[in-house]
């Protein structure tokens, strides 16, 4: 049986849905070199993006590839499913995400120091939304838990890596809670 690699990759992306697919998973299924898979994905990404008659795009966020609907179709999808695409994240959640993104791995005390409030509930809500996860404990007194952003963070904000975040220059604590919150709010409301 001859295999149509692009067809298989497209099927894998579709079935994975919002979880996305890592190249290592595609390699395991197809048993072809990583560079070859990456080339197929980039070629498919160009094909989807250049075809105005398609309602889907192939996107790479964090370390995963996704088959996503085009942003310009968001309102039509919302009408079909009666969805309100408002920002589900509070100001304190956006601030905490910014602190964690810029300081990974980040203990709760760092979040509280920069944001100026108790972060216990905020961290729990961000973990429930799968935007952050615990990656272990620091070897400092009290052995605080350390948090990092997840691939869902990249997907939600439409950024490919930490390098896509705005540059924080002067007063780090002030800039991270104001500039980053504005950046994240703009990204999520697009």
UniProtKB/TrEMBL annotation:
InterPro entries: ScpB_csome_segregation, WH-like_DNA-bd_sf, WH_DNA-bd_sf
Gene Ontology process terms (BP): cell division; chromosome separation
Pfam families: SMC_ScpB
Domain of life: Bacteria
Keyword RNA-binding recorded: no
UniProt keyword terms in alphabetical order: Cell cycle, Cell division, Chromosome partition, Cytoplasm
Presence of keyword Cytoplasm: yes
Name recorded for this polypeptide: Segregation and condensation protein B
Provenance organism: Candidatus Malacoplasma girerdii
